[in-house]
Design brief:
single chain; 2 domains; alpha+beta; elongated; five-stranded mixed beta barrel
């Protein structure tokens, strides 16, 4: 059974990021943004893939990139999302401390972060982050600043199979599905009384892992690593899970009851 395809995660904004609702990617409700004038600032520190501190004429600002959502880094002992550290490190490498950037700002979120389009050498950081495969498109209460460019960059990342789009990265959805498919295909076709318990435990573990991915795909709001995927990528993941389940059934068919 196919799950609904993920749309752009929209964060309801009353001058702040609040709850998420899913809107169709093809027909988002847009408003004409009214930014502040361009402000030159310098990078002080990169917090994560979509959050950074800068220093400018008015002092220090904490910026939240517009129209993208990067994987969340772990906090308070909780694990981060897949490729969260890599997304942060990608931004840090691109914008070392002291780098001069230009920003156009669009108000604040509920955490006091300034919503901003950050540009270096004319390139939008939001767009380049998505092109590198480290962010999903995000429409914030109709605030369309670089959304179409981010969506196009996300499609490029999908074709290139980079970042969260790569099946070769073990923690991505596609990577996890590929590993499960391979493990299911490697189950023994026959078992002995001595090996039966271990084989059954492995099969049940695979069943649970497959179910966990299906639940992750079907339950919103989607994390960045899922929201970034195209419908074709999601179909490929589901096909991989279907193949894994078929292998489980075939490989264990001759096991004694």
């Amino acid at each position: 059974m196919r799950v609904p395809r993920y749309a752009v995660c929209t964060v309801a904004l009353a001058a702040s990021l609040a709850g998420c609702t899913l809107l169709p990617r093809t027909t988002p409700s847009r408003e004409s943004p009214t930014p502040s004038p361009n402000v030159p600032v310098s990078v002080r520190w990169v917090i994560d893939g979509d959050t950074l501190d800068v220093v400018g004429p008015s002092g220090r600002l904490r910026l939240r990139l517009v129209n993208v959502n990067a994987p969340e880094v772990g906090r308070d002992g909780a694990p981060g999302e897949c490729l969260a550290a890599e997304a942060r490190d990608w931004v840090r490498a691109r914008l070392p401390v002291g780098t001069s950037v230009e920003i156009w700002t669009y108000g604040f979120d509920r955490y006091g972060r300034t919503l901003a389009d950050v540009r270096s050498a004319g390139a939008s950081l939001s767009v380049e982050l998505a092109r590198a495969g480290y962010a999903a498109p995000l429409l914030v209460r109709g605030l369309d600043v670089v959304l179409e460019d981010v969506q196009a960059a996300t499609r490029e990342a999908s074709v290139a199979a980079v970042g969260v789009h790569s099946a070769k990265v073990a923690c991505t959805v596609a990577g996890r599905a590929a590993v499960l498919n391979a493990q299911a295909a490697a189950l023994p076709a026959t078992v002995t009384p001595a090996s039966k318990a271990a084989a059954l435990a492995q099969r049940e573990s695979l069943v649970a892992s497959i179910a966990a991915i299906r639940t992750e795909l079907a339950t919103g709001p989607a994390p960045a690593g899922v929201a970034a995927l195209t419908s074709q990528e999601l179909d490929a993941v589901l096909d991989s899970l279907d193949a894994a389940e078929a292998s489980l059934k075939t490989r264990s068919a001759a096991w004694p009851g």
